[in-house]
Amino acid sequence: MTNLSAEPTELWLSIQEEAKSEVAKEPCLASFYHSCIINHSDLKSALSYLLASKLADDVMSSLLLRELFQKAMDSDPEIITSACYDIIAVRTRDPAVVHCSTVLLYLKGFHALQAYRVAHWFWHQDRRSMALYIQSRVSSVCQVDIHPAAQIGHGVMFDHATGIVVGETCVIENDVSILQSVTLGGTGNESGDRHPKIREGVLIGAGAKILGNIEVGKGAKVGGGSVVLEDVPCHTTVVGVPARVVGASGCDKPALDMNQNWT
Question: Which spans of this chain does the record mark as coiled coil (predicted)?
Fold first, then answer.
């Protein structure tokens, strides 16, 4: 596969070229590609437009939401930097995705994650009502529930994404892949630090439930449908209810190769 650059300007030029090529193939979508990609000068402009259009409702217009999103992105350049790494992550890990523009336009896991990044910024500006409002809209529109206080790195892929839940004190490090219907939750009504810590390179299969203030170690794999209640050692594979170690994970970062053979 051709190496893809996560540098924002280079990535944006590549996405614009993809959009222009798609317009030539499908003229009926010309206005869509122009309004979402071609008419924008950079990724920040396009992403704020797309998220605002997607999340607007009777309470918050798309115009107002876009102003808020741009304020966060202007104040914290890491939001766009992380978005670039997230786009590359999906493009390189998902064989169904052949264009970076597909990630930007269509994939709700990516949309949910970028809206979380904005909500996270508002949370730390002590504008917690706004952060929770964005979380609520994302949950309603994308069926992904990420608490704005959670800590999430870059190069993260939420594949398919429906039903993913990320709790308030959860940590997800860089280069992690999480499939649909995964819960990173607590074990009850306890307070304080109560959610999982997902370390770099981890792959979590569809429907897995990881509960409590436990650690899934670097480079580990969690099998689909597993219920994890204890720490997972680095570079191991766990499967089952409750989950148990069944072997090594087979590589340094399972999230990158997406090999879901658990044996």
Answer: none
